[in-house]
Design brief:
This protein is an alpha/beta fold. It is built from eleven helices and 21 strands. It folds into three domains: about 40 residues; about 200 residues, Rossmann fold, CATH 3.40.50.300; about 170 residues, 2-Layer Sandwich (Ribosomal Protein S5, domain 2), CATH 3.30.230. The strands form five sheets. It has a nine-stranded mixed beta sheet with strand order 6-5-7-8-4-9-10-11-12, with helices on both faces. Bound molecules: thymidine-5'-diphosphate (TYD) and magnesium ion.
């Protein structure tokens, strides 16, 4: 057993301090510092693999062999990873319980053709994994399954098998003998991840680590690992809905602006090439309160249906409820409507949501949100085949949304006839065939453009 010492960690951000504090100096949270016992030499797990000495060299002399990427056999995952997995990288896949992390990673382990993969599970039995694999209907002869939680055993198995890719499901269930605390504690998570990082670098094996984040973010976990690992991916979505987004939060080997879209089916996660097609509904008759916004998430433009309901407030204080959209921003947009167009929003309840349970933080959705509200307020459907892309400022001015050109192109591709954008856009866009681009500078021109 290694020598032990007492340290204090913040359970929110992982800040380490030698003495107890009431408030974490790093993240400012109160009562989050807890006591832990750790091994004195935190590098001790590296005993398993010997570390050769590094050499100093000039930057121009470094050979560029970093660009090799392993195809995961999954288009959406490749896209988010920046083209595939870099050998020897440590990847953290975070997400709420039940969102589909195990499904996605097992699918990757099974679809990665010509790759030998090791799926380590501390949460499910081998039979359960077999059942899931059967459900996914994929067969990879080179996928091995290991149900184990002791890190020392896992590392020796990795050394023996030397697979191309390892999946650790999940880091919260793993433990090492080097520290005394129970699995899932900050110390265990940190030590296990540090050891896995060394294994990945020394043996050139890519390792996926799955980490749970709770809704409250209280369990110490993925947050404190973000600076240790090379890549951080987040799997998001509403578990009541079928759509999932895989998002790059950090990537030492590429950009983080790509997203991957999946649909959860009874046969696993299906890649969604064309998000717009699933996020737009087709109605026989035009309905009031529905608009379409052209948004960009990362680099990816897609169109999404916005639904609003404006009704007379039954009680003194009007209700405002928004799903997937910042409530404060909704309040701001309503105030702008009240002031600039004279709509009596203070007497109205307003409800807002997006198709597919999507969350949208792109402010380019503002125009579409306001269009849906206007449409419901006047109880008049919007013009057929109209969509919007633009941000609204406090004085009612319509600001250009980033990548407006791409949004227009996506709208045209999907057969929209008219798109309303900001007239402050730097260079006027050459409209693709079949779509009319309407430029407006202020919110009071919006009703005329869409109704
Ligand atoms: P899971 O991967 O176990 O989530 P996590 O590892 O993130 O906790 O998957 C959770 C849900 O996915 C589960 O409620 C069932 C559903 N599911 C499907 O809908 N289709 C499938 O083919 C599979 C394997 C799971
Ligand atoms: Mg799981």
């Amino acid at each position: 057993m290694a020598k032990l010492k007492k340290v204090y960690f913040c359970t929110d951000c992982g800040y380490e301090t030698p003495k107890w504090l009431g408030k974490c100096p790093a993240c400012g949270a109160w009562n989050t510092i807890t006591e832990h016992t750790v091994a004195k030499e935190s590098s001790s797990p590296a005993r398993v693999v010997s570390v050769p000495r590094a050499e100093v060299c000039k930057v121009q002399d470094i050979a560029e062999n970093q660009t090799r990427r392993i195809d995961t056999g999954n288009k959406e995952a490749n896209r988010v990873l920046g083209g595939g997995i870099v050998p020897g990288s440590l990847i953290l896949l975070g997400g709420e319980p039940g969102i589909g992390k195990s499904t996605l990673s097992l699918q990757l382990a099974l679809t990665a053709n010509n790759l030998s993969t090791l799926y380590v599970s501390g949460e499910e039995s081998a039979e359960q994994i077999k059942m899931r694999a059967k459900r996914l209907g994929i067969n990879n002869m080179e996928c091995t399954v290991y149900t184990e939680t002791l890190l020392e055993n896992i590392i020796s198995e990795i050394e023996a098998l030397h697979p191309d890719m390892v999946i650790i499901d999940s880091i919260q269930t793993m433990s090492t003998d080097l520290v005394e605390s129970s699995a899932g504690s900050v110390t265990q998570i940190r030590e296990c991840t540090a050891a896995l990082l060394k294994v990945a670098k020394m043996l050139g094996i890519s390792i996926f680590i799955i980490g749970h984040i709770t809704k409250e973010g209280t369990i110490a976990g993925p947050k404190i690992l973000e600076h240790i690992v090379d890549v951080v991916l987040q799997f998001e979505g509403d578990s009541n809905n079928n759509y999932r987004i895989l998002r790059g939060i950090k990537n030492r080997f590429g950009a983080t602006y790509e997203i991957g879209v999946f649909e959860m089916r009874d046969t696993g996660l299906k890649e969604v090439d064309n998000p717009s097609e699933i996020l737009l509904s087709h109605y026989d008759e035009p309905l009031a309160g529905i608009s379409v916004g052209a948004v960009v998430d990362g680099l990816r433009p897609y169109l999404i249906e916005v639904q609003a309901l404006v009704s007379g407030a039954a009680y003194g204080t009007p209700q405002r409820s928004s799903m997937g959209f910042d409530q404060r921003r909704l309040n701001m947009l309503l105030a702008v409507l009240e002031k600039r167009i004279g709509m009596k929003m203070f007497q109205k309840d307003v409800f807002l949501n997006f198709a597919g349970g999507f969350k949208i933080s792109d402010t380019g959705i503002d125009l579409a949100v306001v269009s849906a509200i206007i449409s419901s307020y006047y109880d008049r459907p919007l013009l057929e085949g109209v969509c919007c892309a633009g941000e609204i400022g406090l004085s009612g001015e319509v600001r250009p949304a980033p990548r407006t050109e791409q949004r227009i192109a996506e709208a045209a591709r999907l057969g929209f006839k008219r798109i309303v954008v900001s007239s402050f856009i730097q260079k006027k866009v050459k409209a693709p065939k079949g779509i009319e681009v309407v430029y407006i500078s202020s919110i009071d021109q919006l009703p005329k453009a869409v109704l």
